[in-house]
Amino acid sequence: MSNNFVRGLPSMALAVVLGLSPLAHGAPQAVQAPAQQAEPTPALQMESPIPVGPQVKVGKLDNGLTYYIQRNARPERKLELRLVVKAGSILEDEDQRGLAHFVEHMAFNGTTNFRKHELVSYLQSIGVGFGADLNAYTSFDETVYILPIPTDKPEHVSKAFQVLEDWAHGVRFDADAIDKERGIVLEELRLGKGASDRMGKQIYPRLFNGSKYAERLPIGREDVLRNFKPDALKRFYRDWYRPDLMAVVVVGDVDPARAEKLVKQHFARLKNPANPRPRDYAAIPARADTEALVVTDPEANGNAVLIRYPVQPVRELGTIGAYREELVQSLFGTMLNQRLAELAQLPDAPYLGASSSLGKLTPRYHSYNSSAAIGPRGALPAIAALVQENERARQHGFGEQELERAKKNLMRTYEQAWNERAKSDSATYAAE
Question: Which of 122, 236, 329, 411 is 20 to 30 A away from residue 38, measured at CA?
Answer without folding.
Answer: 411
